[in-house]
Design a protein that fits this description.
Radius of gyration: 14 Å
Oligomer: single chain
CATH superfamily: Haem-degrading domain
Strand content: 15-25%
Largest sheet: 4 strands, antiparallel
Strand order of the largest sheet: 2-1-4-3
Structural class: alpha+beta
């Protein structure tokens, strides 16, 4: 894994995977697509979609535990604070040899810079929330979200996938 290449690709994902509108119905359908994609991988994940601090979709698949919901909360907190994917923040910190605790005095019990939470962007509005998945290895949590968003938004999954 090349950190700089991954960070550049994630920045491209965040630039391309943006909505023209997003509401509760969008969250519900998107959550269902994430669930179906996880089932297709025979994976058990917890899925959370929040808009402006409000929980619009939550599903804990059989095989997950309350720990997955807690990981989702911690990863989502990173996205809501920084408007960047939790994986990008974690990779940046690894590259720079630092942590959010060192940089911003944030408690790791509440902020996890592991892959699996992605900012919800609406064109001409900004970051309005987060989509979070927990249950797979962090790179796969991130990839699951990107795959579903790319499909939804008509973007090339191959062009946006991490190597």
């Amino acid at each position: 894994m090349d950190l700089e290449r991954d960070l550049a690709r994630i920045a491209e994902q965040e630039r391309v995977l943006r909505f023209t509108r997003f509401d509760a119905d969008t969250a519900w359908e998107l959550g269902g697509r994430l669930r179906a994609a996880a089932e297709a991988r025979k994976a058990a994940v917890t899925i959370e979609i929040r808009l402006a601090g409000e929980l619009l979709f939550f599903h804990a698949m059989p095989g997950t535990s309350p720990a997955n919901a807690d990981w989702a909360r911690r990863k989502r907190n990173v996205v809501e604070l920084l408007h960047l994917s939790s994986y990008a923040v974690g990779l940046s910190n690894r590259r720079d040899g630092t942590t959010l605790e060192q940089k911003l005095s944030l408690d790791p019990r509440d902020y996890a810079t592991h892959g699996g939470s992605f900012p919800l962007w609406v064109e001409s509005v900004g970051c309005i929330g987060a989509i979070t998945v927990s249950g797979l290895p962090q790179r796969e949590d991130h990839a699951l979200i990107v795959q579903v968003l790319a499909s939804w938004l008509g973007a090339s999954q191959a062009a946006l996938a991490l190597d």
